[in-house]
Structures are given as C-alpha cells and as structure tokens.
Specification:
With 169 residues, this protein is mainly alpha-helical. It has 6 helices and 3 strands; from the N terminus they run H-H-H-E-E-E-H-H-H. Helix 1 (19-35) packs parallel to helix 3.
Length: 169
C-alpha cells in the first residue's frame, strides 16, 4: 500500500467547526497528553477514545457536562475509577464514597457527591440529563482534576480549563 492509497477511517463533520465540540476536544487532548505515557498498545483505550471523539462529532446532546463524564470514564482506563456507593461524601484520596468526612480536605461535599454519583456511570452516557449549575460544574471539575493529580502526581495543571469555564458559564 502506498501513501496515495490511504484514506480516512472517519472524517469529522462538526468537530473542527463547532466551537463547543472543538473546545472540549482541546481539553481532552491536553488531559490525554498528561495521562497516557505508555508506549505499548492499549486497544481498549484506543477504542474508547475513538468512540468518544466520533460520538462528540455526531451528537446533538447538550454538552455542558460532557467533560465531567469524560474524566470519570477515562479514569476507568487509567486504573483509578471511583468505587460507587450511596454514601454521603466522595473521598478523593481513596476514590470512594464514605459516610464520614475525612480528616483531610481532599473530599467532595455531600451535595456535589450526589451530583457525581448521578453522572459516574460511563456506560449510561447520561451527561446531558444531569442538571448542574455553572458554579457546581466548575467546582466538580476542579475536584476531578484534583482527583487526577492525587492519583497521577505528574498530571500538573490543565491550561485549557479556562476555555471550558467560559463556554459553560
């Protein structure tokens, strides 16, 4: 096969031209660059990301919570997916819900933990059905980025976050 014979497997229709979708993609790429360091094949992760990008391109759903859902779904492939229960507070260090406030500040309030619990199932893809205020969405995103930093110390800061905050305000 020559390079002249190569074709696109999927040609994006909206992603490059839709400001919200392309901004989400920018955020996702930055997160992926900071989280995936392995050089060996990981076909499950590749298929997950491919499907997410195609779905993002094709969806007509409301996208304000998509990045929250994406971070939770990606954590499943990175090895620190939250343990889900109906307890009150989400402990960021331990990655689980608990009835007691931890002795440290790395936990999510009861109200935001309830929101997190509603959106946490990656198979549901129900991000468009969860109503979150802009203030709570910003807090939840900050908590999830802290969650990533706690489990991936080299994660660092995300520069594209300001774009998302401006879009979903």
């Amino acid at each position: 096969m020559r390079i002249n014979d190569a074709n696109y497997f999927y040609a994006y229709k909206e992603l490059p031209f839709h400001i919200v979708k392309s901004s989400l993609l920018l955020f996702y790429i930055e997160v992926i660059n900071k989280t995936i360091k392995e050089h060996e094949a990981y076909p499950e992760l590749f298929h997950f990301l491919f499907e997410i990008f195609v779905e993002l391109d094709e969806t007509d759903k409301h996208l304000a919570n998509h990045h929250i859902w994406f971070l939770l779904a990606l954590s499943k492939y990175l090895g620190f997916y939250p343990s889900v229960s109906d307890r009150k507070y989400f402990d960021l260090r331990e990655g689980l819900f608990t009835d007691n406030i931890p002795a440290y500040s790395n936990y999510i309030s009861e109200q935001l933990s309830e929101v997190l619990r509603k959106i946490i199932n990656p198979e549901l893809k129900n991000y468009d059905q969860i109503s979150i205020s802009a203030v709570d969405r910003k807090k939840l995103l900050a908590y999830l980025l802290d969650y990533y930093r706690l489990h991936l110390p080299e994660f660092g800061e995300i520069r594209s976050i300001q774009i998302l905050e401006d879009l979903f305000r």
